[in-house]
Design a protein that fits this description.
- With about 110 residues, the chain is α+β, with helices and mostly antiparallel strands.
- A 3-stranded mixed beta sheet has the order 1-3-2, with helices on one face.
- The protein is about 45% helix and about 10% strand.
Length: about 110
């Protein structure tokens, strides 16, 4: 997952806090909360580039399923989807909503 998401996150690590969710985004203690960062950017403040950490719940069924995928393209789709779900769950906006819809559609078609 770290390699597949290297452009989006600084690190992927196993979560000690997640129970129901497959993934979540966290920031280091020095980073502003993502919603605060967005508000400051919208107000015209320049913010230094930073990437969140993606924490994953290794006990979640989705992560167990992703671990069995052989296709590199399908694995990348799942990795992106897990990241995008975490962005949405924390109230963020997706950089590429159309790409998100395409990934969801591809994965749904492959599931059937």
């Amino acid at each position: 997952l770290s390699e597949a998401l290297s452009d989006e996150v600084s690190e992927v690590r196993a979560s000690q806090r997640l129970t129901d969710s497959a993934s979540c985004l966290v920031l280091s203690e020095q980073e502003l909360a993502m919603h605060m960062r967005r508000m400051l950017e919208q107000a015209g403040q320049k913010m230094p580039d930073s990437k969140p950490v993606l924490e994953v719940n290794l006990d979640h069924q989705l992560l167990k399923q992703v671990a069995t995928i052989d296709s590199e393209d399908q694995f990348k789709d799942w990795a992106e989807l897990l990241f995008e779900q975490a962005v949405l769950a924390e109230g963020g906006q997706l950089e590429d909503p159309a790409g998100f819809v395409q990934r969801v559609n591809r994965l749904m078609l492959n599931a059937g």
